[in-house]
Amino acid sequence: MMPRRPTRLTCPTTLIIIAGALAAAAGWLLPTRAGAQMAPPETGLRINWEVRNRFRLFREERDFQIHVETLRAGRILTSEQTLEAQSEGRGWARNTVARLCIDPTGHVNEPCTRDGVKESYLTPTEHAVTVRLTGPVPVGAVCAWTFNDGDGPRQSTVDCAEPINFRARYGRPTNATVDLSTGGEPPQRLSTAIEVRDLFIAGLGDSIASGEGNPDRAVALADEGFCFQSYFGGPGSQYYRPSRARYKGSRACEGGDTSAAGLRAWQALGAQWFNAACHRSLYSYQTRAAIALAAMYPHVAVTYLPLACTGATISDGLFGSQRARECLFTRNSMTCTGTVPGQIGELREALAAARRRDPNRQLDLVLLSIGANDIDFSGLVADVTVNSTTERTLFRRSGVLGSLDDSRSTLQHDLPQRFVRLREAVKPLVGGDLSRVIFTTYGNPALANGAPCPGGPAGFDIHPSFNADPARLQRVTAFVEREFLPQLKNLAECQGGILCRDPNADRMTFVESHQAAFADHGFCARAATDPEFDRQCFSAQGDSFTSDIVAASSQPLTCGRGASEFRAYLPRARWIRDANDSYFTAMTYPQGVSNSVLPADIHDATWGVLSAVYGGAIHPTAEGHAAMADAALPAMTSVLGLVGAESPVTSEPLPITPR
After folding, report:
1. Residue 110 · residue 103 · CB < 8 Å
2. CA angle in degrees (0–180, nearest 5) for 132-133-138
3. Percent of the chain with pLDDT over 70
4. What span, in angstroms and rounded, lies between the C-alpha atoms of 486 and 239?
5. b or e along 333-355 (b: 16 or more beta carbons within 10 Å of the residue's beta carbon)?
6. Greatest distance between any 2 Cα atoms in the chain
7. Secondary structure of the chain: what % helix, strand, coil (to 5)?
8. What single string gives the DSSP state of each residue in 398-418?
9. Is residue 316 very low, low, confident or very high in pLDDT (cuts 50, 70, 90)?
10. What pLDDT is recorded for position 15?
11. Tens of pLDDT along 470-490?
């Protein structure tokens, strides 16, 4: 039997879109279908309605529906793992990223054409809604539907098994009434109010908030090697690692293309991001939580504004501008912004623009993770992993290597003052109530099975100078666990000696429940269930790559397999990307760095170090982000008061018309 198609509602002034069937989210995490309106017990009938394509960043409903379907099983982590299997490790976002209401430069498309209809993204005036009658609907029953939002009724009479599609006016209720008639039963009338709640949610923060390490479309790898040469040159300074697929230039160090044109050709074959300048990714926990919120609640639409940027600190990133991480490359052009505006300023401008169109538009939630770059966590990572004396000297002089003493001083003295300024700036944007700021903290990246990772070259042998020094690693792990993470909680919750002007209004909603899970999934975690490529080709002894440069030029991996077989988005025991993962997934050529460490050309081994430090090493995988989203989502629904919300439905018999 062919599926029934939704019926167009008769209305000359409203465009009706014929689309999809009712979807619901189920499982322990997801509540009973919020769109289901309970009918009186004597009939068992109810009016059920939902907003279609209600995650408004997506232009096409098919991209939203894959999340609705996979979230039926429960958690966001389960959804991510299902989507990873369905995509065979290539990732669900690789196609969705081209169908968004925000362009790759970060500009909101106003208007945005969603499922064939032009809409204002920040200030919607209507939403696509599907309505249907559910319960024991008699076969052959006829339903006369009436929808009235105050501008006159719109009517349609259809078989009661048919769903109705219409566009509901935003900001006012639409009264929906259905008169059900059957041959042998008294006529029955049911009615309910349809009123969409459009939630405006912004994402702010650093690389954890942006999704660093998880490009929407991972870099395509070649099976052949690509030559790198140490900054100081000399015998034995060359080595080979997998190249980018389809690169036509010389892969050898001698005679390689060192021109600007060669760099552009190389970069055009890089990973693709939702936003390259900030390494924003759809895999970010903030985006995944916002998608799940929309999937959970059929009466809600989510207008989501992601502004987080990798490398951001409170001063440079939230308030002030910061360096762009990468240029935006397409087949025919290159766009280099150089700097990225401060996120709080961008949010203020977006909110002001929305209020010019709709004075009642409010910011409902801010999702936030910040603080790691303030204490120079990437510098601590570099200090742990860069082991060669030559490279350590170079990067210490240029400020790439951090120190625990400096990080500890910033944590104790500077970060509390920066949080004071942050509160003062964000508080007016959320109506004076900072509980609407969902502060999701970090997981400790260096734990596995509840114990610190041991260190060593495993997972870091992508660069000859890398070797996670055990002693330095233990000190940094202890600092993160005992000092940094507890102080972040104090700062967000106005406790532990942190003074806030009004603790009741200044306390952010703090999320930390994911930390226990991360304690078993740090960068060193391995399991028999890891992808076969990882188990065969990423050596636990740190000898994954061919050392003979003649052999390595054609086969850089000692396992004998091609690097093109690596899949960035498959379930793994580790939820933290190591340096090898970072190279194989993103292979970031750093541009947002100071000139003192900027690579001379694409064969300069310097960028191999910087690619790991600034390109996603020691950042959550897509699974890690999904676990963080699972932790953030209950806090979001609680603050928004969404749990258990329903619209009432009434039922009454129709008066019998005398014949």
Report:
1. no
2. 135
3. 88
4. 42
5. eeeebeebbbbbebbeebbeebe
6. 104
7. 30, 20, 50
8. TT-S--HHHHHHIIIIIHHHH
9. very high
10. 30
11. 999 999 999 999 999 999 999
Phi, psi dihedrals of residue 68, rounded to the nearest 5°: -55, -45
The pLDDT of residue 622: 98
Residue 592 corresponds to which tokens in the numbers above? 């947002």
With the CA atoms of 389, 394, 399 and 404 taken in that order, what torsion angle do they form, in degrees rounded to the nearest 10? Answer: 0
Q: For residue 3, is the peptide bond before it cis, meaning its omega torsion is within 30 degrees of 0?
A: no
3-state secondary structure of 203: strand
Question: What's the N-to-C CA distance of the chain in angstroms?
Answer: 38
Q: Grade residue 35 by pLDDT with cuts at 50, 70 and 90.
A: very low
Task: Tell me the pLDDT of the chain averaged across its residues.
Answer: 89
d(CA 214, CA 308): 14
Confidence of residue 6 (pLDDT cuts 50, 70, 90): low
On whether the CB atoms of residues 361 and 121 are closer than 8 A, the answer is no
Question: What digits encode the pLDDT tens for the residues 39-95?
Answer: 444 568 999 999 999 999 999 999 999 999 999 978 999 999 999 999 999 999 999
Token output for 535: 């188990």
- What pLDDT is recorded for position 13? 33
Structure tokens belonging to residue 53: 């394509």
Give the integer Cα–Cα distance in Å for 423 and 551. Answer: 57
> How far is Cα 18 from Cα 25, in angstroms, rounded to an integer?
22
Q: What is the pTM of this model?
A: 0.91
Per-residue model confidence as pLDDT tens digits over 343-365: 999 999 999 999 999 999 999 99
Beta bridge partners of 7: 164
> What does the pLDDT average to over 418-436?
97
DSSP per-residue codes, 67-91: HHHHGGGS-HHHHHHHHHHHTTTS-
516-520, Cβ contacts within 8 angstroms, sequence gap of 24 or more: 517/443, 517/575, 517/627, 518/443, 518/444, 518/445, 518/447, 518/575, 518/576, 518/624, 518/627, 519/443, 519/444, 519/447, 519/448, 519/450, 520/447, 520/448, 520/449, 520/450
| Arithmetic mean of pLDDT, 531-560 | 97
Distances (CA, A) of 540 to 8, 448, 527: 61, 15, 12
Q: What is the pLDDT of residue 235?
A: 53
- Supply the pLDDT for residue 590: 76
Using 50, 70 and 90 to split pLDDT, how confident is the model at 620?
Answer: very high
Spatial CA neighbour of 312 closest among 426, 419, 409, 210: 210
Query: HSE (CB half, 13 Å, CA atoms) of 19?
Result: 24
Alpha-carbon span 383 to 403, nearest angstrom = 7
Distance between CA atoms of residues 369 and 209, nearest Å: 6
CA-to-CA separations, 257 to 218, 222, 326, 583, in angstroms, rounded: 24, 18, 20, 21
The rounded distance, in Å, linking the Cα atoms of 351 and 362 is 8
Long-range Cβ contact pairs of 82-89 (< 8 A, separation 24 or more): 84/569, 84/570, 84/571, 84/622, 84/623, 85/570, 85/571, 87/569, 88/567, 89/531, 89/567, 89/568, 89/569, 89/570
Q: Do residues 193 and 535 make contact, with C-beta atoms less than 8 angstroms apart?
A: no
In angstroms, rounded to a whole number, what is the distance separating the alpha carbons of residues 480 and 48?
49
